[in-house]
Amino acid sequence: MSRAVTWQGLEEWLAEHSRVDLWDAGVAASGVQLGVEPQPYRLDYHLDAPSDWITRRLDVDASGAGWRRSLVLEHDGAGAWTIDGERAPELDGALDCDLAFSPLTNFMPMRRHGLHEAAGSHDFAMAWVSVPDLAVHRSPQRYEQLRPGVVRFTSLDSDFTADLELDADGLVVRYPRLAERVAG
Hints:
mainly beta
């Protein structure tokens, strides 16, 4: 199933549009994100999580006035990562990427554990990509279903929490303080 999904920012000017291809146990998505914080930027990405909802590859290109950056983040399927072809042992054990300001990348861990439908709580290590500098950091996170269609996201290395509203597929409809879906 293919979907076109668009979000708008809630507290900062932000827009994201993604074409999402869903399978029984995976997803591929290509999209664009536009933002103005911390500086105006355009970000193009392609995400590939073809089996077990585990990220295999995230390609990102970011650009702004007088600058351009790119990133290739790859996962071997067993927990090892590379950043632009270089081994990244600080990310070992993480199964998912998390692209800053994007409601899309919360999808994989929630879907893998059925949290959009079933009760539960799981802690994850994420390969978090900051935007627009494209630096990659390990980010410990928790996802806990509060009720069907609502999952609490908690950053385990800060005091940030948000109750994510999801559709029947597990895609974010509303991410408080970040974005809400306007189409798709």
